[in-house]
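Request: Could I get any protein with tokenized structure?
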Amino acid sequence: MTTEAGQDRAIGRVEGKLDQIIKDMDRARDDRKQQYEKQEKTDRTLDEVMRKLQSVDNRLEKVEEPVADFNRWRERGVGAIMLVSFVAASLGGLLVTFGKKIWAAIVG
């Protein structure tokens, strides 16, 4: 009977170890499931961010050309104002230099 009791104890220890292995496998399966769920959520979030980024890129491409045109026209306007200022200053200088002679010629 001692051998039978020893065998029962040995079988009990093996069963306990198998139960522990099964629990570890279940826990590992649950951990993997959680990791996969987190990875899927991250993938969905990344896809959403990529769609938004593409949308912003498309909108930016539509805006770049008008902004460049506006900047060109603004610089042309600054150049035109500088030209008008130069012409006005030149005419003012001529008027100061030859003002008395022009006035004398007009008045007589």
